[in-house]
Amino acid sequence: MNTLLRQAGIIFLAALALLFMPVIHADSNSRDADAARSTITAMERAWNEHDMDAFAKLFAEDADFVNVEGTRWRGRPAIKEATTFVHSTIFKKSRLTVDDTTVRQLGRDVIVTRSTWHLVGQTTMKGDPVPDRTGILTNVLVRSGAGWLISVTQNTDIVR
């Protein structure tokens, strides 16, 4: 009898867990993944056009961005201010290529992307060339209306 009650309890908890799990349909998952990739493509395009207005609009108002040096920018205005400055100096001739983006949907309204990237054309503040760089960019995107906004970003140089 004790074993029967235990099994019934396990079945009840499993059913309860299934009831409250987010339902993600394959079609919406595919559309959402494509939309998230489009956001990352728009990020790459804005970077290469040095359009930090367009770049900043890809971020949620309360976004949190950590760059490759560990500097943290909180909020869309801070992200725009910082990226506008670096695009007028060390990145003004840079070109970013996003090589691969994987998408993992954690729930109906949350997606994580992880992209590898390659950067050329960076200079020092004095204008001296910097070697090409490669890295990994992790973004947490949240659903916003019909699209996706970046809520959290972690950028990491790959050091070889």
Morphology call: globular
Total domain modules: 1
- Give the neighbour order of strands across the main sheet: 2-1-6-5-4-3
Topology as a string of helices (H) and strands (E) = HHHEEHEEEE
Structural class: alpha+beta
Please report the distance between the alpha carbons of the first and last residues: 61 Å
**What is the third-level CATH name, the topology?**
Nuclear Transport Factor 2, Chain: A
Provide structural commentary.
By secondary structure, this protein is an alpha+beta fold. The protein has a single domain, classed as Nuclear Transport Factor 2, Chain: A, CATH 3.10.450.50. It is built from 4 helices and 6 strands; from the N terminus they run αααββαββββ. It has a 6-stranded mixed beta sheet with strand order 2-1-6-5-4-3. Strand 3 and strand 4 form a beta hairpin. The longest helix is centred in the first third of the chain and has 23 residues. The protein starts with a helix and ends with a strand.
